[in-house]
Design goal:
By secondary structure, the protein is of the alpha/beta class. It has helices at residues 17-28, 44-54, 62-67, 78-92, 106-113, 145-156, 169-177, 179-196, 201-222, 226-233, 239-249, 252-271, and strands at residues 10-13, 37-40, 57-59, 71-74, 96-99, 118-123, 133-139, 159-163. Strands 3-2-1-4-5-6-7-8 form an eight-stranded mixed β-sheet, with helices on both faces. Bound molecules: NADP nicotinamide-adenine-dinucleotide phosphate.
Length: 272
């Protein structure tokens, strides 16, 4: 199978926030048309919303939707993943399965679907909701390059994609999965600093958030090392180097490294 042909059908098992972000993304990028997409979820109010908002087909029976699909995105909460895999594992065996379920390893999905199952594990993050997501993809042994391209296209519709070996998925969870929360905290704290120095709250929040966005885009778009970009704004005896000195005294680098490590370890514990 190559990148999504027009006849291909995509189904989502679980129509929550991540499924909605992906539906929005693939429709906006015209990878799939609404009539090619089927979503199942036990919550009929949720299904009504998805049908009204995006024109996709909906239903409450997972088996029925999956049987008519070429690609299935598993988007249920980790707590119900085992039950869903038990329910539809046999039909998933014949389809390209992309799981976004945090912490559920390829091996566990393989156990439910059989050793020949074609499975890709994805770890997106919340900015996918606004098409600025970061997704890591890990592929199962049976995946062909064309299937990887198909998954890449789906997740590129909501942001950037990197391919990693599955053994790095916990570190991905600790960095880009949990990372938006670290940055929210930084934005809030920087805005608090502005308020402390007399800025109105609203202005301080915009100044902080746009500064983080602009700096991140400079790293991505210039390809320059962040240390080089930092050096360019730290003029001798100036304001920035005074602020940087204080951050180093407070151990910002070490604490961020610790945060990624702590979240990675927690992900390893939860994954068992
Ligand atoms: N949100 C993120 O940023 C993010 C990032 C990375 C990974 N993920 C992963 O993506 C998955 C979905 O997350 P989410 O934030 O979209 O969660 P969510 O909003 O809770 O969506 C999950 C949906 O699955 C439905 N569901 C429950 N049991 C089901 C069943 N047996 N068959 C079909 N659907 C069922 C739920 O319905 P009810 O509410 O009625 O139970 C809910 O609508 C999770 O495994 C999460 O780890 C999410």
């Amino acid at each position: 199978m190559s990148s999504p042909p027009s006849a291909q059908k995509l189904s989502f098992v679980g129509g929550g926030r991540m499924a909605e972000a992906l539906i929005k993304g693939v429709l906006a990028s015209k990878i799939y048309k609404a009539e090619q997409i089927h979503v199942t979820d036990p919550d009929t109010a949720r299904l009504d919303h998805l049908k009204t908002q995006y024109g996709v087909q909906t239903g409450v029976t997972n088996h029925e939707a999956v049987v008519f699909s070429d690609v299935v995105i598993l988007a249920v909460k980790p707590q119900v993943a085992a039950e869903v895999l038990k329910e539809i594992g046999d039909v998933l065996a014949k389809r390209l399965v992309i799981s976004v379920v945090a912490g559920v390893r390829l091996g566990r999905i393989m156990e439910a679907c059989g050793p020949k199952a074609r499975i890709i594990r994805a770890m997106p993050n919340t900015p996918a909701m606004i098409s600025e997501g970061m997704t890591a993809l890990a592929i199962g042994a049976e995946i062909e390059e064309s299937e990887m391209r198909c998954a890449r296209q789906i997740f590129e519709s909501v942001g950037r994609v990197v391919r990693v070996d599955e053994r790095f998925m916990d570190a991905v969870t600790g960095l880009s999965g949990s990372g938006p929360a670290y940055v929210f905290l930084m934005i809030e704290a920087m805005a608090d600093g502005g308020v402390k120095m007399g800025l109105p709250r609203e202005a301080a929040s915009i100044l902080a958030a746009q500064t983080v966005l602009g700096a991140a885009r400079m790293v991505l778009e210039t390809g320059d090392h962040p240390a080089r970009l930092k050096d360019q704004v730290a003029s001798p005896g100036g304001t920035t180097i005074a602020g940087l000195h204080r951050l180093e005294q407070g151990g910002l680098r070490g604490i961020l490294i610790d945060a990624v490590e702590a979240a990675t370890r927690r992900s390893q514990e939860l994954g068992g």
